[in-house]
Amino acid sequence: MNHKYIPHTESNIKEMLEKIGISHVSDLFKEIPEEVKLKRNYNLTRSLSELEVTKIIRELGSVNYGTDDLICFLGAGSYDHYIPSTVNHITSRNEFYTAYTPYQPEVAQGTLQYIFEYQTMITDLTGYDVSNASMYDGATSCAEAMMMTVSQTKKNKVLVASLVHPHTIAVLQTYAHFRNVEIVIINEKNGLLDLADLETKLDQDVASLIVSNPNFYGNIDDYSQAVTLIHNNKSLLVMVVNPLSLPLIKTPGEIGADIACGDGQPLGMSLSFGGPYLGFLTTNKMLMRKMPGRICGQTKDVDGKRAFVLTLQAREQHIRREKANSNICSNQSLNALAATVYMSTLGKQGMKEVAIQNVKKANYALNKICTLPHFSKVYEAPIFNEFVVKSNVSYDVVKEALLKANMMCGLHLGDYNELLKDHILFCVTEKRTKAEIDQLVAVLGGLK
Amino acid sequence: MKVVQGLYYSKEHEWVRVEGEYAYIGITDYAQHSLGDIVFVELPEVDDELTVDDSFSVVESVKAASDVYTPVSGVIVEANIILEVEPQLLNQNPYENWIVKLELDDLNELDKLMNSEEYQKFCEKQ
Amino acid sequence: MRNYDKLIFELSIPNRVGYSLPPLEVDDCDIFDLIPDHLQRKTESYLPEVSENEVIRHFVNLSNKNYGVDTGFYPLGSCTMKYNPKVNEDMASLAKFTSVHPLQDESLSQGALGLMYQLSESLAEITGMAKVSLSPFAGAHGELTGLMIMKSYHELRGDLKRTKVICPDSAHGTNPASAAVAGFDIVEIKSNPDGTVNLEALKSALNDEIAGIMLTNPNTLGIFEKDIKEITRLVHDAGGLLYYDGANLNAIMGIARPGDMGFDIIHLNLHKTFSTPHGGGGPGSGPVGVCDRLVEFLPVPEVIKENDCYKLNYDKPYSIGRLGNFYGNFSIFVRAYTYILTMGYDGLKFVSEMAVLNANYLQKMLKDDYLLPIENICKHEFVLSGLKDKSTGVSTLDVAKALLDYGFHSPTIYFPLIVDQAMMIEPTETESIEMLNSFVEALKEIAKIAKTDPEYLKHAPHHTIVRRLDEVTAARTPILRWTKE
Fold this sequence. Notes:
The complex is a heterotrimer. Chain A is 37% helix and 16% strand. By secondary structure, chain A is an alpha/beta fold. The radius of gyration of chain A is 26 Å and the shape is globular. Chain A starts with 9 loop residues before the first helix and ends with a helix. In chain B, strands 1-2-3-9-8-5 form a six-stranded antiparallel beta sheet. In chain B, strands 4-6-7 form a three-stranded antiparallel beta sheet. The mean pLDDT of chain B is 93. By secondary structure, chain B is of the alpha+beta class. By secondary structure, chain C is of the alpha/beta class. Chain C has three domains: 8-63, no CATH class; 87-342, Aspartate Aminotransferase, domain 2, CATH 3.40.640; 351-471, Aspartate Aminotransferase, domain 1 (Alpha-Beta Complex), CATH 3.90.1150.10. In chain C, strands 1-7-6-5-4-2-3 form a seven-stranded mixed beta sheet, with helices on both faces. Chain C has a three-stranded antiparallel beta sheet with strand order 10-12-11, covered by helices on one side. Chains in contact: A-B, A-C, B-C. Chains A and B meet through loops of A and strand 4 and strand 6 of B.
C-alpha cells in the first residue's frame, strides 16, 4: 500500500525487513496469539482521498447552524465574543501546535514563555500570585479547586451555591462522589447567595464554599459578608468567575477568596460546540503547593540567560504517583496561547472596553425587553452580560419566533429548575449591535 | 557518605537524636544524597500525634519526592521552620538540621533501630 | 539570529492599542449607574499595551524558539508524535463547526452530533468495544472516567469490598494517580524484566478486594503481552475488571483489538493514535470505551441516534455523571474523524505495520552502541538503557541533550522506571528510512564522542537558544509570573 502520510515504499520495506532479519511484515506480529488476532478488516471505509474526505466533512458541517447563520443571544457558559485575527494566526503556527509538553526546555522556550505570560495575565485579572498552566475546562478546574480545599483543610464537606452553573455542579458531584466528599447546596435568594442559608449550613466540617460571579443568572453578587463568614469558620472560599468581567468588576483576590477558577473560553476561543476551551485556576502563595497541574517558572540557563521551565513538578503524578495532588498531566496549552494572544491584542484598554460594552449592551437589551408587555425583569442585581427575563409566552413560541427571524434564543431556565418555567437567560456580548438588539426586541414585542 | 555516632537510624534513612524525653528526627546523608538538590520540605503541624512509620513530611528535589516516616511514636512539639526557607540545609548538613522534634511515647521503640555501625553496614549493602 | 528575549509586558507603552471595537451605539450611561462602585475592580491591571504588529512579531519570535513535529523528528516514546495532517486542521476550522453553540437546539447541531456519533462508532469498531464516550478531555481524564466506571460497577452490585486497583510497577505514574483520584487504593505488582505481567505476582495479588487492573498492551517497553488471554481470565475469575490504557494502540490497529483480548474498559488518546496535534501540551482528547455490561455507566450526555436524528441523552440513571461543562474537546473530534476517513481500514492497519517496522529497524540499528535490555521483536516503541559503554560516565540525560544539537527532539527519558537510564524511542509510521538513518547516525556519533570527550556531552546542548537550565533555583524560589519593577 502507498499512503501520503506514510513514506515507506516497497523497496524501503524490503530493505528494513532485511536489516531486522525477518522476511515479512507479518513476522513483526507473530507473538500475538492467534485467538486475539483480528481475522477481518475493520468495518470502516477504505482510505479516502482528500477530496472525498473534505466533501464528507463539509457535508456534515453544512447541516449545522452557527453564529454566521443565527444571531446569538445564547450564553450560559459558552459565549459569542469577538476574536481578533491575531489569535488564529498565532495558534496556527506549526511550531506551537505540533509541539508537545515542554519536557526539553532548551527547545521549548516558545511554549514555556507564553505559559509564563499566560500565568501573569490570569493572575493579573483575578488578583493572585500563582496560576497553573491551565486545565481542561471551567468545570474541571472547579472540581480541582474543590479537591485542593479538601486536601488543605482535611475536611470533607463542600458548600456549593445553587447559582454556580448547573453543569459545573454536576461535575463537582461526579468528582465528589468518588472521593467521599459531601456536597451541600446553598440556596439563592433574589438571584443572589442566601446568606442566612449559608450561616445555617456552615459547620466545622466545611472545607469550602464555592460561589460564582457573575452567577448562573448573570447577577453580580457582593460576597464580602460570605467571605468573612467562611474565613471565621476556618474554611476556604472558591470563586468561579468570568475572566472577561474582571477588568471591570471586583476580583476574587480583592474579595478575599482563596482560589479563583473558571472557563477561559471568553478569552479568544470559538464556541466549537463546547470545546476545547480552558480551565484556569489561580490562588495565593499559601496554597501554591496544593495546586494541581503544570506550572511554569522563570530561571536562568548556564550562561545566565533568562529562560523558563516547568517547575514545582514534585507535586505531579509522574513523580508522586498515587500521592499526587491530581492525576492531570497536560494542560490546554494551545488554548492558553489563544488566551494570551487575545489578552495581548486587546490589552489593558481593550479588555476593559470589552467588559464595559458587555455591561452596557446587556443592560440596554434588558431594559428594552422589560418594557414589552409579555416580558418582565426578575432580579434587581447588577449584571455583566447575561440576565433573566420572565416570559408570559411559552418558551417554545419565543424560540421559534426568534429562529424564524434568524436569531438564537437564550437558555430556557425551566430545563434546569421547574419553578422557572418560561424564564429565559439571555446573553448580549460586545459583538451584538444595537440593530441586532433592537431586532430581538421587535420580535419579542410582536409576540401575542 | 557520612554517618554520625550516637544517633539511631531507620531502614528508611531517617536518624533520631534523643535528648531526655525528646527526639529530633531528620534524614541521613545517604538520603539527601540520593534525592539530590532538595528544593522543598513540607512540614507537619505542631501537636500532631505520630505513631511509628507514619509519614510526617515530604522532602522534594527537582525530579523526586520522598516521604519521611517517623521511626518512633510521639507528639510533635516543634517543626524546623527554617527548612521552609532554606531547604538546602538538608543537603549541606543533614545531621545538624532536624525536621521535627517529638515528645517520645515509648523509649523502648529505640531498641528496634540501628546504631551508627549497623546503619553504615546497611547502607553499604544498598 | 539574535536571541529574542522580551516578555510581552516589556514591550508595553501606555495608551498603545492593538485592537479595534465598534462604537457602543446604544445609549451611553455612566458605568457606575450599572455596577456600583463597591463592586468594581480597584487594582490596577498590568496587561500589556502593544500594537497588533508587535503582538504578531512577539509570538512569531516565540514560535521560533519551539520544536514541533513539523520542525523535525520527535521520537518521544509513549507519546506517538506522528505527523499532524493539515486537512485535519482545515476541517476543524470550518466556521460550520467553530461557530456552533453547545447549548443550541439539537436540531440545529445535527452535523456536530452526527460527527460525534460516527467517530464514536468508528472508535468502537477499531477497539472492539461496545460503546465509546467522547467526553473525557485527555488521556488522564479518560483513565479517571474508566476507573469511575469500574467503581460504579462494583458499587451497583453491592460489592463494596473492592477498593483496590492493581498497577504494574512499569505503569505510567498517571495510572496510580488516576486510581487514587477515583477513590481507589493502589496495589503495585512487580513486572517481569521485559515489563510483561508476572503471572505469579498477579495471582497472589488477586482477591475479593481487587476492583481491577490497569494495563497497556503492548506494554511500556513495547512488548506485547502474549499471555493476555490468561491474564484476563485470571482477573475476571477473581471478579475484577481489566482496564486498557490506550497509549500504545498505534502498534496494533487492524491486527488485534483490546475488546477481543478481554478488556472491559479502555481509553484512547486521539492526540496520539489519531493524529490530532499535541498543541504544546493540549488540548487532547481521551475517549473511553466499554464492554456491553458497562455501557450503562458511561458519562452523560451520550450521543444517540433516533429515527435518523442525533440526540443528547441524559437519561442514564447509573451513569457516573457529567465530566465537563459540555461534550468534550469537539474540534479534536473533527480532526480525528477526518483522519479515520483518510486512513480507512486499510490505512490504519498500514499505520501500525509501519510504526512497528520503524521501531524494530531503529532498535536493530542502535543496539551495538546502546544497551538494549530486551532482545526481542518490539512493537511501536522500545527502551534502551543508556549507552552500552558504561565507563564514560555519560548519562541518558546527556545523550538526550546532545541530540538537541543535532536537530532532533529527545526520546522520553527515565521512563519506564523499571529500566535504568531509560531512553524510550517511538519513531511512529510517518518517518522515512532516511530520517531514521540520520537519527541513527547522530546517536552513533554521540556514542563515539562519549568515549573521546565525555565532558562535551555533559554540557550539551551547545547550540540551542538556551542551554541547560537551573531547575533547582526555579523550584526553591519560584518566580511564577512577571511583576512590574
